[in-house]
């Protein structure tokens, strides 16, 4: 008769097996924020002011578009989408940032950190692609003016925006999801002001090549490709404008693009510059935090101001609403 052999695993061997079979995930991450900067709380107070003005500005713009029926057009559907993404992006980022650093609650749960990362990246990427949709609107308006109303329709714009929301949710979800396959067996200190993708996956102690690839794909999809498309539309617009005989007509057509060009410059120049500097050379964490925080917050503040002050349609609509409310108040006062 042969005896059944039983194998007893050594505790150290068992521990090693468990270590190899599972990922080491920390319960919490620690957001370091700025290092060795005196009176840094004033900067967070400044961001609080930026957030309040962002909410008021975008809320005001959305209210004007809602109340004025002449602005219920495909073009202003895109403006509404931009205002909503600005509002949501700022609300996702700034209140949590203030809670973290003003009230010194720097530890964040692992799962909450990944959710935080997803929504910040998601709304930022939607800002980028909304600017592409705006460029498409200007491209059709100038290059195909007679066919504009048949091409740029509400269903067409809605389909473009919905596709962007859906497609970018997949890209960002994959980017964030690949963080879950990493082990963090060393430091859990994130050298950033939020759960930023690069500073987090650089802390991992296993292979991060897939995360590197996904970071480059996200960079291309969210920043490079939209910028190329916008540049292409403006090359086509420049060619179309060069064929217009009258300099006055060229200037009039170009003025319709100024608001969009300002928004593109405000959004893309700082964020592309920061990313190129981070990839090509060493950038101090404090410099990265300042650039990144301003890049995520200032465009959302300036977008409604640019559209309120630089767009004649919106200015006229604001004047109409003001006159209408003034007349209503006068009539109410007379009735009393």
In short:
This protein is an all-alpha fold and 336 residues long. It is 75% helix and 3% strand. The termini are far apart.
What does this structure look like?
The chain is 75% helix and 3% strand. The chain is built from eleven helices and three strands; from the N terminus they run H-E-H-H-E-H-H-H-E-H-H-H-H-H. The chain has a three-stranded mixed β-sheet. The termini are far apart. The relative contact order is 0.13. The N terminus is likely disordered.
Q: What attributes does this structure have?
A:
336 residues; mainly alpha; 3-stranded mixed beta sheet; 3 strands; 3% strand; globular
Helix and strand topology:
Elements: H1 11-21, E1 28-31, H2 41-67, H3 74-102, E2 107-109, H4 110-143, H5 148-151, H6 154-177, E3 189-190, H7 197-201, H8 209-242, H9 247-280, H10 285-310, H11 312-335
Beta-strand portion reads under 5%
Mean pLDDT: 84
Distance between the termini: 111 Å
The biggest beta sheet reads: 3 strands, mixed
Unreliable parts = 1-21
> Whole-number radius of gyration?
25 Å
Per DSSP E runs of 2 or more residues, the count of β-strands stands at 3
Helix content: over 70%
| Inertia-based shape | globular
What structural class should be given to the helix and strand makeup? mainly alpha
Strand order of the largest sheet: 2-1-3
SSE order, one letter for each helix or strand? HEHHEHHHEHHHHH
Oligomer: single chain
Tally of helical runs: 11
């Amino acid at each position: 008769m042969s005896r059944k052999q039983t194998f007893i695993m050594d505790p150290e061997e068992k521990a090693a097996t468990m270590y190899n079979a599972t990922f080491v995930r920390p319960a919490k991450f620690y957001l370091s924020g700025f290092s060795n900067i005196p009176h840094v709380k004033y900067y967070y107070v400044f961001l609080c002011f930026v957030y309040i003005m962002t909410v008021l500005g975008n809320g005001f713009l959305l209210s004007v578009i809602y109340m004025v029926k002449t602005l219920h057009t495909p073009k202003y559907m895109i403006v509404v989408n931009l205002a909503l993404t600005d509002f949501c992006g700022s609300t996702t980022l700034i209140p949590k940032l203030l809670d973290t650093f003003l009230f010194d609650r720097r530890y964040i749960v692992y799962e909450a950190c990944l959710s935080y990362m997803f929504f910040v990246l998601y709304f930022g990427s939607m800002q980028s692609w909304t600017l592409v949709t705006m460029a498409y609107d200007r491209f059709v308006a100038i290059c195909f003016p007679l066919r504009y109303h048949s091409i740029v329709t509400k269903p067409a714009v809605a389909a473009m925006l919905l596709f962007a929301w859906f497609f970018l949710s997949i890209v960002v979800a994959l980017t964030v999801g690949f963080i879950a396959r990493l082990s963090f067996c060393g430091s859990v200190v994130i050298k950033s002001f939020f759960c930023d993708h690069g500073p987090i996956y650089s802390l991992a102690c296993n292979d991060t090549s897939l995360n590197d690839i996904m970071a480059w794909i996200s960079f291309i999809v969210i920043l490079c490709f939209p910028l190329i498309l916008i540049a292409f539309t403006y090359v086509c617009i420049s060619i179309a404008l060069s064929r217009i005989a009258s300099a006055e007509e060229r200037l009039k057509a170009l003025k319709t693009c100024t608001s969009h060009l300002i928004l593109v410059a405000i959004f893309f120049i700082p964020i592309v510059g920061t990313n190129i500097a981070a990839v090509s050379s060493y950038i101090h964490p404090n410099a990265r935090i300042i650039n990144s925080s301003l890049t995520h917050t200032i465009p959302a503040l300036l977008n409604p101001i640019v559209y309120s002050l630089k767009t004649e349609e919106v200015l006229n609509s604001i004047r109409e609403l003001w006159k209408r409310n003034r007349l209503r108040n006068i009539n109410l006062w007379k009735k009393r």
